[in-house]
Design goal:
The structure is a single chain. This protein is an alpha/beta fold. The chain contains 14 helices and 17 strands. α3 links the parallel β5 and β6. α10 runs parallel beside α11. The longest helix is centred in the first third of the chain and has 15 residues. The structure holds adenosine-5'-diphosphate and magnesium ion.
Length: about 400
């Protein structure tokens, strides 16, 4: 149950509303190359415009480390957003201070202002009280729609809620509802799929999903470490030696639930033009590395997905960025899209993979949060959500 106030619970008309969005989008020479996150914030922004709010958007972009980094300016995002809204979006060159104040005060009902990158100030990540107060002073209400940053207690996600009535935007609500409701009382058969680079980032998610799911299918670099923990020689593959004892422990407790690859696509190098072949997991030639799951593994995993009622997927099955090693990831993506199951995808790279496969529309929910969705799947409370006002307050 989502028990936080949402924008529909607060009176926004003619009010200055500070909205924390996640506009941390990829830019190439001032052009937004993937606007998924901007699109995802539109329902909240449009609602506020339609209800005559004075909309003040703020976000971080990249890692400027508390300094002004011109390449990480949000100005191009203001232009892009203006195009999507077919309206003027004004821009303030600093998220606090005189210019921001003036710009905020100039707003008419239904106008939109985007503030410069909050992380140009060290106070943002430090959740500095003075910085948070300054930012909050621009507005009368606060809405958090930045699910992707909800796992961080920063000034613009948590600090400002000390000074302003705080509610959730539509995206925040949708993310928490989907992830939360699916995992609270999962429908069975529940099949979880995990992959990606490193197991150390994901051990707690692996453990939690193992508790809840009927099957956990593991691919990608994650599987390498589990395979090594089972005694196979992974040659030059990415294996996390420090994680081997934990991997062994998990395997012992979950022998029949956790499925590992039976064959792998191995290559002489981590490169698209490397020599490659598919081998059983016990026959990786020395000097080679595993970069994708093999055909037999794809079939095995697909057979477990058939008839599933709930599928949760985090982490690609291989190095999908390189076309010769993308087959496993895309085949699993297609298999998920074909099922009748409620399907939820979390993780930045997994979401990118599903977009690249053109299958986003066939998935019930593709989370916009990478780290946030992982922490949520671990069962952690997200500080950005906890800080919002309770529904009945
Ligand atoms: P997500 O962002 O979906 O949580 P991760 O960040 O954990 O996923 O992992 C994605 C990365 O894992 C991708 O860049 C991919 O290339 C890499 N990866 C997947 N399989 C392997 C592998 N076998 N060896 C090395 N890297 C891999
Ligand atoms: Mg990632």
């Amino acid at each position: 149950m989502f028990n936080k106030k949402t924008i529909e619970d607060i009176e926004v008309g003619s009010k200055r509303v500070l909205v924390r969005v996640d506009f941390n989008v990829p830019l190439d020479e001032g052009i937004v190359t993937d606007d998924t996150r901007i699109q995802a914030a539109l329902p909240t922004i449009k609602y506020l415009i339609d209800h005559d709010a004075k909309v003040i958007l703020c976000s971080h972009l990249g890692r400027p480390k508390g300094q002004v980094v011109p390449e990480l300016s949000l100005r191009p995002v203001a232009e892009h957003l203006g195009g999507l809204l077919e309206a003027d979006v004004s821009f303030a060159e600093d998220c606090i201070g005189a210019e921001a104040k003036q710009a905020a005060e100039k707003l008419g009902d239904g106008d939109v202002l985007l503030l410069e990158n909050t992380r140009f100030h060290a106070g943002e990540k430090a959740n500095d009280a003075d910085f948070a107060k300054e930012l909050a002073s621009l507005a009368e209400l606060y809405v958090n729609d930045a699910f992707g940053t909800a796992h961080r207690a920063h000034a613009s996600t948590v600090g400002v809620t000390e000074y302003l009535p705080a509610a959730a935007g539509y995206l925040m609500e949708k993310e928490i509802r989907y992830l939360g409701e699916a995992l609270r009382e999962p429908e069975h058969p529940f099949v979880a799929i995990m992959g990606g680079a490193k197991i150390s980032d994901k051990i707690d998610v692996v453990k939690r999903l193992l508790e809840m799911a009927d099957h956990l299918l593991v691919g990608g670099g994650l599987a390498n470490t589990f395979l090594a923990a089972s005694g196979y020689d992974l040659a030059e593959s990415l294996v996390e030696d420090e994680a081997l004892p934990t991997a062994r422990e998990i395997l012992e407790g979950a022998v029949d639930k956790l499925l590992l690859p039976v064959d792998l696509v191995v290559a002489t190098e981590f490169a698209a033009d490397a020599e490659k072949k598919t081998v059983p997991v016990d026959q990786i030639p020395s000097g080679w590395q595993a970069l994708d799951i093999g055909e037999q593994t794809i079939e095995l995993f697909k057979s477990k997905l058939e008839g599933a009622k709930l599928i949760v997927w985090n982490g690609p099955m291989g190095v999908f960025e390189l076309q010769p090693f993308a087959q496993g990831t895309f085949a699993i993506a297609e298999a998920i899209a074909e099922t009748e199951a409620t399907s939820i995808i979390g993780g930045g790279d997994s979401a990118a993979a599903i977009r690249k496969a053109g299958l986003t529309d066939q998935i019930s929910h593709v989370s916009t949060g990478g780290g946030a969705s992982l922490e949520f799947m671990e069962g952690k409370t997200l500080p950005g959500v906890a800080a919002l006002a309770d529904k009945d307050s």
